[in-house]
Amino acid sequence: MQIPRNKFTLLAALWLAAGIYSLLFRESGGGVPPFPHFDKVAHFALFFAQFWLCAKAFMQEKLAIPYRTLWLTALVYAVAGECAQAVWTATRQGSFADGIADMLGASAALWLAWRVSEAKSKQAESAKRR
Q1: Could you state, in order of their start, the residue ranges of all structural domains in the chain?
Q2: pTM value?
Q3: N or C: which end of the chain has fewer CB within 10 A?
Q4: Distance between CA 23 and CA 18 in Å, rounded?
Q5: Of the given ranges (12-16, 23-27, 50-54), which has the lowest mean pLDDT?
Q6: Contact 108/50 with Cβ under 8 angstroms?
Q7: What is d(CA 96, CA 113) in angstroms, rounded to the nearest whole number?
């Protein structure tokens, strides 16, 4: 698998570093969340953005998106992140529900990437016929 070298790869790497920092090295403020299950929305958004950026890096280079590899990477990241929060942080806890939110976010991003790629392919085929 060829790893793309473009701005989206850089953004994905920076987003990963920020995610790891916020989940493991930054202690929870303990404030009241704006609405119930806010943390699940945050986990969904974190993983959605991470894997959208990864897929976008492949789309930018016109490379095949390795959906299965990215999804398995998301699974490993979700499990490792929740285990790390449970073991290494004092104000955070590992949660199966957070892991589910992580995987839903990654899955939604990869589904969207697939839909966008399919639409672009159809558009390119249509343009060739003209």
Answers
A1: 47-122
A2: 0.90
A3: C
A4: 9
A5: 23-27
A6: no
A7: 26
